[in-house]
Amino acid sequence: MDTKRTILVIEDEPHIALGLKDALEFEGFTVLEAATGKAGLAIAQKDRPDAVLLDLMLPDLNGYQVCEDLRRTNQVVPIIMLTAKSQEADKIRGLQAGADDYVTKPFSIGELVARIRAIFRRTHRPSEPPSFRLGEVTVNVGAQSIQRDGKRAEQLSFYEVELLRLLHERKGQAVGRDELLDKIWGLEANPSNRTIDNFVVKLRKKIEKSPDKPTHILTVYGFGYKLVD
User: Fold this and answer.
1) Which of 16, 174, 184, 210 lies at 20 to 30 Å from 56 by C-alpha?
2) Is residue 106 part of a domain?
3) Pairwise CA distance, residues 156 & 12, whole Å
């Protein structure tokens, strides 16, 4: 349980804020609340939370403005934007404003908690590269995208990025399906081994020259997967 982690929820919809507070406290987090952007900025400056859940549509400042202001006063606090907008341009604008991740409503609490814990893992590994190469492909962890030799970047999902990142940490080593499920999804979410296999199929289509004959994301039969250059 994350008993020492404090999360600031900046959300003006009372029922959403209450639902987030109850769910996050159940997961062991301490929760601070603000219903406006200005109130959220004041609390963030005073109490220095470990992460911020930031709604995009607020009654005073919008989420982009709040995010930019947070970044001017606190360069390291992880920020996850919560929004009903799902357009790629909105996501890119949020990331450019300084958000670490972007969750589109409606979302599951299990997914949100997984994203929070993944961000904590990232931010407590200062040596982790922001991007890495796999053959002709560059994987940008922070922007959640891949780019093949100068062509237009293609967005990756949260779980695709986390899967690649974890395999890259153990590059050349076999990583078991159970470990991947536990560290990325959390066993309490009740994912299956087939979940991993489905994401590997998607990633191979985006990364491998010949997805049916992969050279980077290799299957270790009866165990899991490993990443090689």
Assistant:
1) 184
2) yes
3) 29
Name the DSSP class of 141.
T
The reply to whether 1 falls in a domain is no
- DSSP class of 142: T
119 plus 135 within the same structural domain? no
Structure token digits, residue 181: 């499920």
Residue that is last in its domain, among 82, 103, 123: 123
Q: What is the CATH number of the domain that holds 17?
A: 3.40.50.2300
How many angstroms separate the CA atoms of 11 and 66, rounded?
Answer: 12
Identify which of 129, 117, 98 has the alpha carbon closest to the alpha carbon of residue 50: 117
* Count of C-beta atoms within a 10 Å radius of residue 152: 7
Taking residues 30-39, report their average pLDDT. 95
For residues 120 and 5, the answer to whether their CB atoms sit within 8 Å is: yes
State the pTM of this model: 0.61
86 confidence band (pLDDT: 50, 70, 90): low
Q: Is residue 210 part of a domain?
A: yes
Backbone dihedral region for residue 135 (phi beyond 0: left; psi -120 to 50: alpha; all else: beta): left
C-alpha span between 226 and 173 (Å, rounded): 6
Contact 56, 33 (CB under 8 A): no
DSSP structural state of residue 108 = -
Note down the domain range covering 185. 131-227
